[in-house]
Amino acid sequence: MSDNLIILWKGADLPVLPKKIQDISHLVTYGLQLSKKDQIQIVRTFNEGSYEMVSTYIWTKAILSLKAQLGKMGISFIAEMLDRPDINEYSNLQQAISELEAIRLAEELGVINGTAAFRLRQAMETVSHFNRPDLDESEEEELTEDEAKTIIRSCIQGVLGYNKIEAAIDFKHFRSDLEAVTFRDDSPYLLKLIQSPYFFHRTTLRILLSLVKSTTGAQLENALANTNLIIPLIWTSLKHPEKYQVGRTYSELFADGKTKASSGLKQLLLKVKGFDFVPEDLRSSSFIKAANEVLTAHEGINNFYNEPVPTNALSRMGSVIPIPAFPACITAILSVRLGNKWGVSHAAQDSALNIIKTVSRDRWVYFFNECLSSNDRILYKLTLNNPSSRWMELFKKEMIDEILPQITNRDSVNILKFTRDNKQEKINKIALEMYSKLGYSQG
Amino acid sequence: MKGVRPISLRSQLIGESVSFLGQESMECLVTQEGLVDLVNQLVYYREEGKALYPEIYIFDDLDLVKQVLPMNQFCLIGQGAKIKDTMLKALKKCAPLSENGWAIYILRKNDSFEYGVFRAGTSILSVSISETLITNGNDDIKAILIHQVAEKLIEVQGVKADSLMVNYGGHDQSIFSPIQNLSKFTETIVQNVPADLRDQTWNFFKKLFMYTLQQGHGTLACVIANKRRIPKKLNDGIQLTTKLDITKSIKDLTEKNDLQANSVLEGNFSLISGMLQSDGITLFSDAGEVLSYNVFVKHPSKLVNSKTSGGARSRTFLTLSRMVGNELISAYIQSQDGQIDYKR
Q1: For A189-239, what is each residue's pLDDT tens digit?
Q2: How far apart, in Å, are the Cα atoms of A294 and each of A6, A121, A349, B259, B309?
């Protein structure tokens, strides 16, 4: 994120850890959430050379703690923030959201800052990779001392070094003001919001939708008034996945009989002429649920083993994906196809390719115009070497030439051109720029 | 020689209809005539001896209405020239289809009318069509609703204009629609329901009482405070061993969103509707529960000996009204002819 941007909230500062700590027993003392017993076990296991074991242990501690802290904000709030209609009060948050989702959300809400998020993502990928049961038992395939030390440091600095972690103070104020007062159109919040990067727009939209769904009385009145004031200001900059989220919320409120809330969103949709984004039925919700199951498997431990079942299930749901569910489905399928920096789930590839084959040219045009530039998951993959190399194999030159004239998004045009011309490094570079433009840290 | 003085409501109705359409920005010579004829037709609307209570919507932009009503079903029945006879034909052809949530629509096109039936939503809980298009309507979606709200009482509602309440009965005119009384009484049934479920529970009870109203059946009901014991005076009836907790059924449906939960709620709907159509009083708590039905109350001697104009049901209502503020929160009466009164 560039420094000259005015932003609504920013992530907490990292706890100060000396840059150079050679001794692991010294490092663990900064882990305020680690009990004395934990610290002793970590040091002993590390000194015994069981680097996978100690890394997995501390990683699990960190991610469980992060998810638990996010859970305190309310399950329905988390579900809305992740655009996960499949998560409800019955869901176990620890299982329902992936590790990557937890890190991303923590970064978006300012629970952790961008650098911590970047380090945690790296730690997650390393732990995931070395937990693969199919890795050879040769020494080359084992986690090294340095890698283990980096993971321990990232976990402490990102999560376990705080007594408790919580959303940024200015984020909390902003969220509570959205339900406590009705903003005026000259509010400084609005001026800041308009100038902020995309993820602030997306997060604000999702907070408002969460409030409209969950509040009653005066809070609901304020939330609806703010929704009708704020969303029209950012509507043209919102991408289709977010617009569909508004339409789907209206549809759900209507079906659930929430008269006042649905009436308020109807007013908004009339104002922005957004009724094209209201799904005709709730079929798209089933597709979104299936897509999220793929993503949860893909972003969890043992992903290569866990991806085939939900991917097959998604492919069996039929070749015509309803348009409101297309952004979630294409993200899931591309994630499986592009894999991560360590490889792909081979058993899930046939199903993924079958779905990709059914995606029409029009849908690809739609993807490049409306979905890719705000899709942090796919953009992040395109910054990595292996996934971006698999991306190059996805699109034939003729297909790119055919759709290029219809692509209006400049960054997407460049990505397509670099793909056609086999310029992988340029793809990595522009994907990183696009990822950063959204508001995420480059690390 | 004595002459004949013809009395006709028609000219007055046409005048009101012109002004109503003007306020709704839906002026049209054919509609203003057709509206009056539809109102006249609805008063005694029966098919094969069965009274029907269709809701008729007139609108101009079908695509927008379809977008505003999620999960809708539209069934085109016919079309014809833009004359009032086509509007009447729409009623004739569609009225038998307008049960179980289906309503009639008449779409005004440049030089023709298109008509059919439509519905929206997924369950009893869903926001009703009238609330979406009329009560909480918007200027951008032009729509008019014509329906019989009680026997011989026809209401014409729009988004902006005052509603027209056309009374063909011998009762005094009231400035309130009986539905307002129904609405206010059902508010007391849900006043102690958790705030996040109150809207939906209220929708459920409004639909339930409307359904009973349209069955042309009289009913008596009252509400006591949640967790309070049933007053002794109301012990003569069928007390449910397990009270019917509608709020819980609604919570289940919104959280699980499955067929079983929907079926339980629909089951409760028909069960309570049967109770409301039984003799006696149906007793609710203010937390959205049914506690007992078929309840009879002894009338105080003062009432028995007094010269009240009503029958037994009216006397019971008067008895219940005297208990309001003490043992009861509210009392409700709906007579067979659709007159509704409530006391809180």
Answers
A1: 888 888 888 878 888 999 999 999 989 899 999 999 999 999 999 999 899
A2: 36, 19, 12, 25, 71
pLDDT for res A42: 92
Most distant CA pair in chain B, distance: 77
Gap between the Cα atoms of A125 and A111, Å rounded: 21
B259 to chain A, any CB pair closer than 8 A? The answer is no
**A354, A417, B331 from A37: Cα distances, Å:** 50, 55, 66
pLDDT at position A86 is 81
Q: Which amino acid is at B341?
A: D
Distances (CA, A) of B341 to A430, A433, B35, B304: 70, 68, 29, 20
Map residue B342 onto helix, strand or coil. Answer: strand
Residue contact A251–B136, C-beta within 8 A: no
Asked if residue A134 has pLDDT above 80, the reply is: no
B217: buried, middle or exposed (CB in 10 Å: 19+, 13-18, 0-12)? middle
* pLDDT bracket for residue A72 (50, 70, 90): confident
Residue A125: closest CA among A351, A310, A311, A383: A383
Query: CA torsion B268→B271→B272→B278, rounded to 10°?
Result: 180
Task: Give CA–CA dist A274/B264, Å, rounded.
Answer: 35
Q: Which residues in chain B are closer than 8 Å to A89, comparing Cβ atoms? A: 255
pLDDT in tens, A159-187: 888 777 666 667 778 888 898 999 998 88
Dihedral sign for Cα A123, A128, A129, A135, please. positive
ipTM score here? 0.84
Of residues A416, A392, A414, the one with CA closest to residue A403: A416
Surface-to-core class of residue A330, CB atoms within 10 Å of its CB (0-12 exposed, 13-18 middle, 19+ buried): buried
Inter-chain contact A216–B121, Cβ cutoff 8 Å?
A: no
d(CA B313, CA B281): 9
Give the mean pLDDT of B287-303.
88
Q: How many CB atoms lie within 10 A of CB A149?
A: 18
Q: What is the DSSP letter of B328?
A: B
E strands of B120-152, at which residues? 143-150
Distance (Å) from the C-alpha of residue A296 to the closest C-alpha of chain B? 21
Phi, psi angle pair for A412, to nearest 5° = -65, -40
Q: Is the predicted pLDDT of residue B192 greater than 90, yes or no?
A: yes
Confidence at A114, pLDDT banded by 50, 70, 90: confident
Nearest to B138 among A214, A266, A276 (CB): A266
Residue type present at position A302: N
pTM: 0.81
B297 contacts B233 by C-beta, under 8 angstroms: yes
